[in-house]
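so the lab meeting is tmrw and i was supposed to have these ready like two days ago... anyway. pasting both below. for each one the top line is the aa sequence and the line under it is the structure tokens. i havent really looked at them closely yet so no promises
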Amino acid sequence: MDIRFSKNLAIFLGLLTPLLETIRRWNTWLDDPPAFFDDFILGGLLLFGAWRVDKNALRGQRFLSAAWGFACGMVYPSFFSQLEHIRLGEADPAPISSEWVAVIKGIGFVLVIVGLITSLRKIPDEVS
């Protein structure tokens, strides 16, 4: 796996994350607007990083890595707070069960870590 994989994963999650968050919080976004819009920032940063890598892999690598770092910083507390809400018996605003939301966030957490790791690998000169 290389920077191209990381770039493609960033495009995928950069589009999917805001979409899923919109579905999840559609009826409750006014209760906590920052919790709704932070995923749009995450998606935008991933897409920007992917765009920069597409223009020049070597120069864009730092932007993509920073976007993945931001995503890790967001997904970590989101996943573990979801587990805490389940433990406390609190319902999630999503149209699916809180357990399924935790599974989706867990998969996202793993994908974000993979994206970060693959974005940090040395780029061969011929890719730049």
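ok protien two:
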Amino acid sequence: MSLAEQLRQEGRQEGRQEGLIASKQQNIVEALEIRFGTVPEGLREEIELIGDPSKLTSLHRAAILCVDIESFAREL
């Protein structure tokens, strides 16, 4: 595999990872909106700073199961 092909492959993998993270972040915000209405901008910003896919999966579950938005915020 040439260097150019390796770089393209790495770029694609990075793009997929970034897309996965953005999708998980959006799913969390959507779950919170469905359950509680408006999501405070500061909370949205905190979610957008998280780049760990497993942490985002855990937060998505918390968004579905938490009793209120304050208890979700404590999970961050």
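from a quick look at the 2nd one: The radius of gyration is 16 Å. Residues 3-75 form one domain. will dig more after coffe
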